[in-house]
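Exam review. A common question shows you a sequence with its structure tokens and asks you to describe the fold in words. Practice with the pair below. Do the first one on your own.
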Amino acid sequence: MIPTRGAVFAFPAPVDLRNGFNGLYALVARHLGRDPLDGALYLFTNAKRTSAKVLHFDGTGLCIYHKRLARGRFASLWQRATAPRSRSPGPS
């Protein structure tokens, strides 16, 4: 079961979601510099942002939760937010 409290870390780049326990564990340890066994939730999305996986250690073992959207996309985790564009006034 996914905990309702605790830290959540989103991986800042698209991930090949064919990765399983070992691949996602390595991404957390090597690229985020975190211990995957610390009980936090680690969120990964694919490049199209149509699927996501969460890696979580529940105290007895690693769990992977996988969600594939039927339509739409997850919010981007790796693109910088852009400042709102101002609209130029129309012809006067």
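Now try the second one, then compare your answer with the model answer below.
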Amino acid sequence: MRPTRVQETRSCSTTIAPGRFNAWGSFAAVYFPVTGINGQSLLGIQVFIQDLFYGGALIIAVALSSLVHRTERRERDIAKEAD
């Protein structure tokens, strides 16, 4: 018996899957920037560099997410063409 769409969504909510909420992704999204900023504060780096760090982290996260999404879409399209 195939699970319903709701059951599939619930079972994926704690796995790392691009485009879906997951607890580990949320943890990483908070942990790494905060750790980087705290490290920079301990080193005495100026505040505007910390803002640049946040901006760079955001740009990298969006770029990686877009790359993964595009790759998955391309693989899905290739699989459809093969069928």
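Model answer, second protein: The chain has one domain: 5-12+21-82. The CA atoms of residues 9 and 20 lie 9 Å apart. Full marks require stating both points clearly.
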